[in-house]
Amino acid sequence: MINIVKIGGNVVDDPAALSGFLDDFARLKGDKILVHGGGKEASRLSRAMGMTPQMIDGRRVTDAATLDVVTMVYAGLINKRIVAGLQARGCNAIGLTGADGNAVPAVRRSPKPVDYGFVGDINPNDINSSLILRLFDSGMSPVFCAICHDSCGSLLNCNADSVAAALARGLSIYEEIRLTYCFERPGVMLDINDESSVIPLVTAESFARLREEGVVAEGMIPKLQNALQSASAGVDEVRICAASALLGDGGTIIRRQ
């Protein structure tokens, strides 16, 4: 089995939470991939530079200046901080963007109906699975940020949830896949203020209802969309849970359909 774990920006920004998560990720047995976000840190730096971050449906609008910022933050500061932390824990991690080794090519999203700028969409069939499998054979654990490329020389900002989902789907033809989205909350909750209200199972039908009712909103929308698409395209299990629960049970499950 291949474990693919995506860690959210709220945990990345919290040194204590990140340290505990890296302890647990390093303990995961077998082949594994870590995909990380870092949007909060990118937004913080953008504001410090006099820029106003713009989000639409939980996705960042990326103009040329914003692309420079997110590349510096995601591919540089955060990625190498995580890789160094894993090396200190005995996990032989290698930090990558989608451009490295042509690992994750993307296509710039159409400006219609919404122009997101330098934002990419990924076809799971284009994942360079052979490269990733060779890294596994070498005893390495890839750590991907959400910066990809268009194969024509331009970098693209991709949603980190989408990167994790594309990797899961692209590799699912080779091995059983468990995709885990870790963030600061215990799962998808009926009441955001009540951590005991975790929804244990989400299906396509219940997602549509939860979105219509406003229970699922903002950044949780693309997260669940990616989870459902992955489960319908060969990924055995998708789990949304607290970063502190990576090695335990609980959270919200989306199963292969």
Word description of this protein:
By secondary structure, this protein is of the alpha/beta class. It is built from 8 helices and 13 strands. It has helices at residues 9-12, 15-27, 39-48, 64-88, 129-137, 160-171, 204-212, 220-231, and strands spanning 2-7, 32-36, 55-56, 59-60, 93-96, 107-108, 120-121, 141-144, 147-149, 155-157, 177-183, 237-242, 252-255. The protein has a single domain, classed as Acetylglutamate kinase-like (Carbamate kinase, 3-Layer(aba) Sandwich). The strands form 4 sheets. Strands 5-8-2-1-11-12-13 form a 7-stranded mixed β-sheet, with helices on both faces. Strands 3-4 form a two-stranded antiparallel sheet. The two termini are 18 Å apart. A hairpin with a 5-residue loop joins β9 (147-149) and β10. It is globular.
Would you count the extended β strands for me? 13
Oligomeric description of these chains = single chain
**Mean pLDDT rating:** 93
Major pleated sheet? 7 strands, mixed
Instruction: Kindly estimate the percentage of residues that lie in beta strands according to DSSP.
Output: 15-25%
Identify low-pLDDT runs. none
CATH topology: Carbamate kinase
DSSP helix count? Answer: 8
Count of the separate structural domains: 1
Cα-based radius of gyration, to the nearest Å: 17 Å
Specify the CATH class. Answer: Alpha Beta
Termini, distance in Å? 18 Å
Please tell me the CATH architecture by its name: 3-Layer(aba) Sandwich
Shape: globular
Sketch the topology as an H/E string, one letter per element: EHHEHEEHEEEHEEEHEHHEE
Q: What name goes with the CATH superfamily?
A: Acetylglutamate kinase-like
